[in-house]
Write a structure and sequence with these properties.
- By secondary structure, the chain is α/β, with parallel strands linked by helices.
- The chain has a domain at 237-335: Helicase, Ruva Protein, domain 3.
- The protein is built from 15 helices and 13 strands.
- It has helices at residues 12-34, 41-52, 67-78, 93-97, 134-137, 141-146, 181-184, 198-207, 222-234, 239-251, 259-264, 271-287, 295-306, 314-318, 323-333, and strands at residues 2-3, 57-60, 82-86, 98-104, 110-116, 123-127, 148-151, 154-157, 163-168, 189-192, 237-238, 265-267, 311-312.
- Helix 2 (41-52) crosses helix 12 (271-287) and helix 13 packs antiparallel against helix 15.
- It starts with a strand and ends with a helix.
């Protein structure tokens, strides 16, 4: 049995036709990104799944792993209006949101005019987001959840679609400010970027040290991306997948009857994690050419969706455990 969540029913034949069109477009996007980013298939998949699901993503990795280049490439390939903000300790909220300036017309009348900041983009790259102060980081909270900002009491809607792809360097911790839990929860996924394998690194050496670098080409437009995002929200979700998501997320919370979780987890994921898993499982299914998500999608996405929404106890950290270990155990326990 499958369920549709708050969406108008769509005929099966229409769903299949739409899915085939979407799959062809997704394939073009994947190929377009793959011509510029080498050897990071899993990262590309997760980044595209986050965007197809309509969410934001936090890219974690050491310097030199093409985090910035990936975001720039996605903006070009998807045809999104992209802006980049380099987060620094002296960055102010108005540098992101915009500000009001006092102007005087030819008759001497004075009035305030709002000048939009770089957040008014369809794809915002927040580079090294943890280098800005908590006050500046919090400027993104409202926009990431409600898709508008409030400046001087006035509401300003953001472009649609609106996505934030933030990068963070896990090594350089001096002069950084850890992201608060409320902001981490706004990210649909945390995508860890690892070192490429030897074949991919060989290709990087050969193809990026010549006279010309590969450049991304646009293959999609924002309207088409929004149509695919709507299709994903209309995809049916089998009851077995819903139950698997609920069981996994609830087992990651202390006080829910799981002895290992009670011992090792200080606080666990909230309902937004269940929403994120549902959307991402649908997006991953379509990314792989399927019309409905499976339990395997939930297992594959458990780590990127849950790891930034949990914290370990001091005792667990003292034992050398990390959040990924806990999530792997929970996934294995779910069968």
């Amino acid at each position: 049995m499958s369920v549709l969540i708050k969406e108008t029913a769509i005929a099966e034949q229409d769903m299949i036709a739409e899915a085939e069109r979407a799959l062809a477009d997704i394939s073009k996007v994947r190929d377009g990104v793959g011509r510029v980013i080498f050897g990071q298939e899993s990262v590309i998949e997760r980044a595209l799944v986050a965007l197809l699901a309509g969410g934001h993503a936090l890219l974690m990795g050491v310097p030199g792993l093409a985090k910035t280049k990936l975001v720039e490439t996605l903006g070009v390939v998807l045809g999104l209006d992209s802006r980049r903000i380099q987060f620094t300790p002296d960055l102010m909220p108005s540098d992101i949101l915009g500000s009001e300036v006092l102007e005087q017309d030819e008759n001497g009348r004075r009035s305030f005019r709002f000048i939009p900041g770089p957040i008014f983009a369809q794809l915002l790259m927040a580079d090294e987001i943890n280098r800005a102060s908590p006050r500046t980081q919090s400027a993104l909270l409202q926009s990431m959840q409600e898709y508008h900002v409030t400046v001087a009491g006035a509401r300003h809607d953001l472009p649609s679609p609106f996505h934030v792809l933030a990068t963070q360097n896990p090594l350089e911790q001096e002069g950084t400010y850890p992201l608060p839990e409320a902001q981490l929860d706004r990210f649909l996924m945390q995508i860890d970027i690892l070192y490429p394998d030897i074949e991919a690194e060989r290709r990087i050496l050969l193809e990026t040290t010549g006279v010309e670098d590969a450049t991304p080409q646009n293959v999609l437009d924002p309207a088409r991306l929004k149509a695919i995002q709507l299709l994903i929200r209309r995809m049916p979700v089998p009851e077995s997948v819903v139950e698997a998501i609920l069981a996994l997320v609830r087992s990651a919370r202390p006080g829910q009857g799981n002895a290992d979780t009670d011992k090792h987890v200080a606080w666990g994921p909230g309902p937004r994690a269940s929403q994120a898993l549902t959307l991402c499982a649908r997006a991953r299914a379509l990314y792989e050419g399927r019309l409905a998500p499976s339990v395997d999608d939930v297992r594959a996405l458990a780590e990127p969706v849950l790891q930034h929404r949990m914290a370990l106890t001091f005792a667990a950290r003292a034992e050398g455990m990390n959040v990924r270990d806990v999530i792997a155990r929970l996934v294995k326990a779910q069968g």
